[in-house]
Amino acid sequence: MAVSRDEIVKPRTDKREYRRIVLSNSLQVLLISDPETDKASSAASMDVGVGSFSDPVGLEGLAHFLGAVSFLQHMLFYASEKYPLEDSYSKYISEHGGHTNAFTDSEQTNYHFDVNSDCFEEALDRFAQFFIKPLMSADATTREIKAVDSECQMNLLSDAWRMSQLQKHVSNEGHPYHKFNIGNWETLEVRPKAKGVDTREELIKFYKEHYSANLMHLIVYAKESLDKLQGVVEEKFQAIPNHERSCFSFPGQPFLSEHLQILVKAVPIQEGHELRISWPITPWILHYKEGPMRYLSHLIGHEAEGSVFYALKTLGEYIIYVICAS
Question: What are φ and ψ of residue 278, in 5° steps?
Answer without folding.
Answer: -125, 140
